[in-house]
Amino acid sequence: MQLNHAQRELTVKIVYYGPGLSGKTTNLQMIHQRTLADVRGRMLTVETHDDRTLFFDLLPVFFNTQSGFKVKVKLFTVPGQVIHNATRRVVLQGADAVAFIADSRRAAGQDNNSYWKNLLENMRENGLDPAQVPVVIQFNKRDLPDTKTDAELEESRQKGKEPVVGAVAIRGEGVLETLYEVLKAAYRAIDGRVHLAKNIGLTEKEFLTQVFSLMDTKGTALEAEFPAKPAGGGQAP
Ligand SMILES: Nc1nc2c(ncn2[C@@H]2O[C@H](COP(=O)(O)OP(=O)(O)OP(=O)(O)O)[C@@H](O)[C@H]2O)c(=O)[nH]1
Ligand SMILES: [Mg+2]
Fold first, then answer.
1. Would the CB of 174 count as within 6 Å of ligand 1?
2. Is 144's C-beta closer than 6 angstroms to any atom of ligand 1?
3. Which of 4, 96, 105, 127 is deepest in the core (most CB within 10 A)?
């Protein structure tokens, strides 16, 4: 998080972390697709010829608060390939919250666990206290055979303190729902340190409403709270 009072600017950093091929880049692509064209930044992707993330992907989303602050939400992904651990650590620096993208297939369980440990290790290496950085877990690829059942997801939800979201990122299912959880967690973590409502006049409700009013929530669990815009829209009523 960077808060610049002179420039009246707040930057929030979210990192999508997890094993190789779990769907981190796909999540960002789907968010990009659902963000109104006139407010989204360009999605920056640095990848190998076979579409594996090499450094990171970055999708910035901007809005202005009613109190006149400019907010930049920067969504990053890390490269999941084992050899790129140093890059993962660098990208993780200064993260306000993490979306951990796991593959729901049973065969991926061990990989998920080892990247979870890797996340905690890299947080500590960066001087981040894992207890202070909220994580949201997405179980992705729920369209594939032999995945953890809904009951097992529910069990993880009950066992851990992290919110758990099921997803089929290639179809956009669970993607905005994950973003919602991770942004809410990031807001709360930042607010705990710098009191956003008091100091810059930005409440949690305004933060979330501003972000999701830039997105097409049609068919997602967020649609009731943040109604989808008419196609081709983006104009305030
Ligand atoms: N069946 C299925 N495939 C998915 C889903 N989400 C992503 N994929 C596919 O999984 C592959 C890897 O997705 P990426 O988003 O590139 O994975 P990544 O986590 O960014 O991988 P790295 O950059 O190497 O760490 C691609 O072929 C995606 O189309 C899903 O929900 N279901
Ligand atoms: Mg990637």
1. no
2. yes
3. 96
List of domains in the chain: 2-212 (3.40.50.300)
Report whether 174 contacts 167 (CB < 8 A).
yes
Residue type, 232: G
Q: Report the separation in Å between the CA atom of 5 and the middle of ligand 2, taken as the mean of its atom positions.
A: 34
Q: Is the pLDDT score of 128 beyond 90?
A: yes
Give the mean model confidence (pLDDT) for residues 43-48: 84
Q: What CA dihedral angle connects 77, 164, 136 and 206, to 10 degrees?
A: 110
Q: Give the per-residue pLDDT at 230.
A: 58
Phi, psi of 11, deg, nearest 5: -115, 125
pTM exceeds 0.90 for this model: yes
DSSP-derived secondary structure for 69-84? -EEEEEEEE---SGGG
Nearest bound ligand to the CA of residue 79? 1
